[in-house]
Amino acid sequence: MPSSYVEDPAPGHGSSAPRAAFRSDAPALSLNGEWRFLLSPTAEAAPEGIERDGFDDRHWGAIPVPGHWQLNGHGSPAYTNVRYPFPVDPPHVPSDNPTGDHRLVFDLPDDWADQPALLRFDGIDSCGRVWLNGAELGVTRGSRLPTEFDVGQLLRRRGNLLAVRVHQWSAGSYLEDQDMWWLSGIFRDVTLLARPAGGVRDYAIDAGYDHPTARGTLRLDADSGVRLSVPELGITALPAGETADVADVQPWSAEEPRLYEGEVHTDTERVPVRIGFRTVTVEDGQLKVNGRRIVFRGVNRHEFHPESGRAVPREFAAADIELMKRHNVNAVRTSHYPPDPAFLDLCDEYGLWVIDENDLETHGFIELGWRGNPSDDPRWADAYVDRMRRMVERDKNHPSVVLWSLGNEAGTGRNLAAAAEWTHRRDPTRPLHYEGDSDCSYTDVYSRMYADHDEVDRIGQGLAGPERIHELPFILCEFGHAMGNGPGGLLEYRDLFERHPRCQGGFVWEWLDHGLARQDTQGRAHFAYGGDFGEPLHDGTFVIDGVVHPDRTPSPALAEFAKVFEPVRITAVDGALRVTSHYDIASTAHLDFSWTLEEEGIEIAHGALTVPPLAPGAATDLPLPELPERPAAGAESWLTVRAVLADDTSWAPAGHVVARGQCPIAAKRAPAAPAAGAAAEVTGSELRLGPGVFDRSSGQLTSLGALVVEGPRLDLWRAPTDNDRGSADPDEARWRAAGLHRVQHRLVGVELLGDALVVRTRVAPAGHGFGMRADYHWSADRRRLRLRLDVEPEGTWPCTLPRLGLRMTLPGALGGAEWFGRGPGEAYADSRQAARIGRFTSTVDALQTPYVHPQENGNRIDLRWLRLTSADGAGLRVDGEPAFAFTARRWTSEQLDAAAHTTDLEPGGTLVLNLDLAQNGLGSASCGPGVLPRYRLHPQSASLTLTFTPLDPDPAP
What we know:
This protein has about 950 residues and is mainly beta. Helix content is about 10%, strand content about 35%. The longest helix is centred in the middle third of the chain and has 15 residues, at about 380-395.
């Protein structure tokens, strides 16, 4: 069977004209389910005659449709970011081209009438040849785009045979290099659609909104005889081609997604529709919807599920959107292809701005200096326009779609310009986006990815880029690369979006870690990334870069995003509260406000706060609520004000916290008298000081009360994050070159000075002349042991420090943690907005963030005190003068550094406790700017003072 079509750069053939995705009252038959399946190593090895009724497939296996064969026991997944996993020789593909044959026998329902019908495939990766009842229908290309075949005359009542031959590689693969797992098969719905004579072939609804008059215009474009009815608006049977003027219409926006139910209908078919009135414009250098400047507080979203790949169940798509809305995400870029059409239905309903992106990326040609790039090769011209056309026609009726995107990282050239020209002609109501059009010669917004803060500032001031872009809106189509622990620096991006009217937000990369569920040889579950399936060419952990873990658990980055981009800001100003609305469209009338007063994290009062509804961008100042008198003890107290949903919504219940702010009411009480006065007692090899026992010769603390301990000692190392490893000059490489992962501790001296024990050390890496003086000053009273650590760098240090603090080990039984400081989640110097002051409890195990690729995590900051206890209440309390940070885990930083997967981390019998003065920031250098200067930890003189108090067991009941 010839397979020359596999290397044809033209669009597929045999399909009907692209049209809007819709369901109607006409019969439809889902062909999803279990199909017969055979995988052959090459196209030539695939069997002949699979389209014939008499073909024997009894020895074949079964496969679910939708599905990918690599995730169902046939072949293996492979991940690359940029490089093609085959030789770059367009349009040719390897002869070793795995080919999956699919067969399904189905019957028509008894009530299925003899009438025209379409067979619809919503997604086949990468190229499919299709037969029905022995007749060839055609060939599909464009993996994440729909294809429909006219099959009415081929159907039979019983025993219909549908055969589909899918090739892993095709000429289309050169256009689909989209930084994701290479996965093949029929991965979206397959549906047989009855098309009644005189029915609705296609339609386009134009629902514009004129904000000065609050009037809408409604127009239906369709064949003659098609009509539109919207009962709520009093519109009945509006003929195609005519326009209705609607007074006092409520517009659609991501903040107020008002939809009007209606029907597009003929005498033989009725199509339910949901209409949102809105107008998108570019004016005054700004992108506006309904006359209002909008800011994208967005995420890039690949379609992914850890078990089924890009065959994402509907309930997971809905769960994604609900999670986005609960974390103040207001926009999605469908990177880098159109999503399942049901996802856009949900965006219309829940309210999200959408950049709908074409199924196009040729990033691998950058490795060749863009030589041979299909974007400027006339052989591919029809394919570029065809892909854009199929997306636009499919999704044209979605009010959530406010921009079209030509694709991603495909260089530039005549084919992109031609696709842009077609799109502008077909749909002048939506601006066009493409980041690769750097001078905006054929696009309507200026877009960059991973521009650093300084560049964004210069763009906002009109000091960067070609002249034309100074008249256009600017967005970051990708920023804040969320790979592992990070990103840092989101707050500073937000400030730029608010400072410069043309800087209209962006889309964090990305929504979800693409970790595939897997088990190791011991049956322990973990998530796999590039290289875990033996791929000879892969990009490792670069596929693990989302604000949500593969199992849809939010990472700390999502909490940080929610706080940084909260639509209401609550701050303290001159002894009052200032509430500022950062909504673009909606007022704050849907929110209730409340306050709580806490002393040392314990609530002592609460109440409602009356805040008048605020228009977008408005602010009001309110007096502080009446608070109870401070107790005589003078505990540190904080006021927390929350803005919550007043009523249930589709995405969160009433009471869901949308925004919060804190302000201090009473400063921390005067610290207790320092632990001092206890005299040192020397007995043999031991030195006792208060509750502490030290090794007399080394000065090392060996026990605290009944607790066996080791340390504390100066610690400069952390398990590098993915962002530490990023950039052309990564921090991790500098740290390792400096030997910070293998420092040695030299004892300089141990001496008693009055009631104090002073241990002097020098900490330095082998092979270098620089180092750090670390002096430990110990004093005690009967119950408490106080340490002042003084550090002084020596020599010329070549790099920043990963961390600066102390490490010690404690008994593993201390599995409970309570602290007063920032929490409940982890926080770092440039990613700390989500952490509030309060009193929090956790198990030690729950303090860990299970990043798919293990790295530094779990840091809590600004602690006034910390308690680590066992089940009976015994343990240790640590107080700071004034504050410190801590991590507690059951493995060392070195073990964390060495781990490739979470299953590599074996809990030990001790607890490793870090008590830090500071850590270096996070940045987003895995793909973007590094740590901003003010968050870098440089070697310098510093002191850290802590008091340790052993805790007795709780009294017996």
